[in-house]
Amino acid sequence: MVDTNILVYATIDEAPKCGEARRWMQRLQKDGVQLCATPQIYREYLVVLTRGSVFERRFSSDEALATLNDTRPAFRTLSPTGDTSEKCTLLLQRYGVRSKQVHDANIVAVMMTYGLKGLATFDFSPG
């Protein structure tokens, strides 16, 4: 599963980790690994691109959507199911997840639903 920050870095030339994110994604694809994302990750991506300056670049809604649409063919989109909601609820209860971490728990629940074990991210801080 590719987290929002990897997607942002990989698609914005001005991003400081652009090259690293692109090389990582290309290496995985070359090794036959299917990159995955969720509709939630796509929405978060659009939020980041349209909320103001991103690495000294401004995106209109149309530009952000075009960038996402250019990128999406590289990904398998994994949508939540009814089982995902149950898994997310269990994660919230088990780990006391709160606030913005609920969004992360939902991504983990989708990963659990589809049997994915790894999340690619540059965000290593809790919350």
Automatic annotation (TrEMBL):
Domain PIN: 1-123
Record-linked Gene3D superfamilies: 5'-nuclease
Coiled-coil spans in chain: none
SUPFAM superfamilies reported for this sequence: PIN domain-like (SSF88723)
One Pfam family matching this protein: PIN
Highest taxon above the source species: Bacteria
Name used for this protein in its record: Nucleic acid-binding protein
Origin organism lineage: Bacteria, Pseudomonadati, Rhodothermota, Rhodothermia, Rhodothermales
